[in-house]
Write a structure and sequence with these properties.
Oligomer: single chain
Mean pLDDT: 78
Order of helices and strands: EEEEEHEEHHEE
Length: 145
């Protein structure tokens, strides 16, 4: 678990509605698939996930996502991501980032989710940050000056 240790030390169960029509999610329970789950944690420690949350098998995550989870996302813990499904979308506070993958890609795992992190800036506002991709080995030439 990357975030939420202050609320609960160990998660035994993740709850979701039974039917997809109620935004329920079906996960592979064979213990062979690890997932990155986002959702809501209630005051009693129960974790709920649904179709509108970010849910992805760990092996399907991009390298940027894995790097961001381990190094950058913690810089955005005071930030909130506001999902935009329909235009117009507006932010209500400066500590929000507008997530527009659904508008641009019709997917919850579009370019923004794969490549960017919502980071708190020095002025207290939050904005999207894209780290540089690793160098492409095909274009590296150590003989160049």
């Amino acid at each position: 678990m990357f975030k939420g240790f202050e609320k609960v030390k160990d998660i035994q169960y993740v709850y979701t509605p039974v039917f997809s029509s109620l935004c329920g999610v079906r996960l592979d329970s064979s213990n062979k698939v690890q997932y990155l789950l986002s959702g809501r944690m209630l005051n009693d420690g129960k974790v709920f996930i649904g179709l509108c949350d970010f849910i992805e098998p760990w092996d399907n995550l991009s390298m940027s996502q894995k790097k961001n989870l381990n190094h950058r996302y913690e810089m955005g813990c005071d930030c909130r991501i506001f999902r935009c499904y329909n235009l117009p979308c507006t932010l209500s506070t400066e500590n929000e980032c507008l997530w527009t993958d659904w508008l641009t890609d019709k997917s919850m795992n579009g370019e923004q989710a794969k490549q960017y992190a919502c980071i708190k800036r020095s002025d207290g506002s939050c904005s999207w940050y894209r780290g540089g991709p690793p160098p492409d080995k095909e274009f590296l030439d150590i003989s160049d000056p």
